[in-house]
Amino acid sequence: MSDADQNGAERPRRFYAPLIAGAIVLLSVIALVIANAVRQPEALTVDALQSPAVGALGAGEDIYPANSAEAIEENAKFGYLPAVATALLSDGTVALANPEAGPEDLGLEKPLEQTDAATFAAARIAPAPLSEDSEGEAEDAETTRDGTPITWEQALMEYGDATVFMPEVASGEVLGPVLEAIEAGGRPEGVIIRSSDLEVLRIAVDRDITALYSGDATAVTPDALLDAGVGMAAVPADSDELDTWLGSEVEVWATGAESAGAFADLAERGVFGALSANPFAIQPSNVKTD
Asked: What number of helices (H) and strands (E) belong to the chain?
């Protein structure tokens, strides 16, 4: 007699398919949650910028140590674009520093062109000056600590995906290594080259990088810039020629806006963005801090 006969009718087999299917669904959901948590946000590009945008001159040198790593990090955090200065060091390294004010800011004994990368990296950038309100009383700066020097290559490597950089480039000599770092990092769409030198801007445009004219707005015309492939220009907010620029196809970045209200009015008139050493003063951030 078989076991089945001895124990009566054979017990029905249990089917675990519903449990297995449920487990698979649960694992899929968990995997999706993990993927979303670790997924990197899309890198910001020039084309993705929304008006009104704000570029922080010197990375916000009125409230942060000028062109410092800390300033750039804060720019990226609060949505401002680091409009940094660039200078060539003695060994060909591109430093983020004002060619004229940089040595004093960094406490260097020699001009930047006579300073090597190791000396630059070992320096500290002086704290930002406290701005003053209309009654002459000092406002609290975002930070009064000194800052860390950073090179152009390091800035692109650490923050290139998080923001759009707007480096000021004075000459073709500086532009060469600036472009090399951009292309090595694979982020030409995340940079706006600023310069008062049209030849510098033409070279940038030829390398598929957005260019912004930062020189005297009365020395050129919108058509001249467009003919050179330059689609952006910095124009003083109080310029008599502002309406002419706004009536052109050139995207205007206003300089000299003194308040959020003034900048809002400029944006209503068609200004695409603004450049300010204290970006918070003209466009308070929506990012909440503790």
From this structure: 12, 9
Say what angle helices 152-159 and 172-185 make with each other, to 10 degrees: 30
Assess contact for 143 and 130: CB atoms under 8 A. no
pLDDT digits (tens, 9 = 90+) for 178-192: 999 999 988 899 999
Residue entry with tokens 């020039």 = 46
Kindly report the pTM of this predicted structure: 0.82
Distances (CA, A) of 79 to 11, 53, 73, 185, 276: 67, 9, 10, 21, 13
What's the average model confidence in pLDDT over 135-149? Answer: 63
In the predicted model, what is the mean pLDDT of residues 104-120? 96
| Residue 54 three-state SS | strand
Tokens read off for 257:
């806006």
Q: How confident is the model at residue 26 (pLDDT cuts 50, 70, 90)?
A: low
Identify the CA nearest to 69 among candidates 177, 187, 159: 159
**More confident call, 145 vs 242:** 242
C-alpha–C-alpha distance, residues 232 and 236, integer Å: 13
User: For residue range 252-282, what is the model confidence (pLDDT) as tens digits?
Assistant: 999 999 999 999 999 999 999 999 999 999 9
Q: Which of 210, 160, 222 is nearest to 185 (CA)?
A: 160
For residues 89 and 139, what is the distance between their CA atoms, to the nearest angstrom?
A: 35
124-128 contacts: CB < 8 A, separation 24 or more? 124/148, 124/149, 125/65, 125/66, 125/67, 125/68, 125/149, 126/65, 126/66, 127/65, 128/60, 128/61, 128/62, 128/63, 128/64, 128/65, 128/66
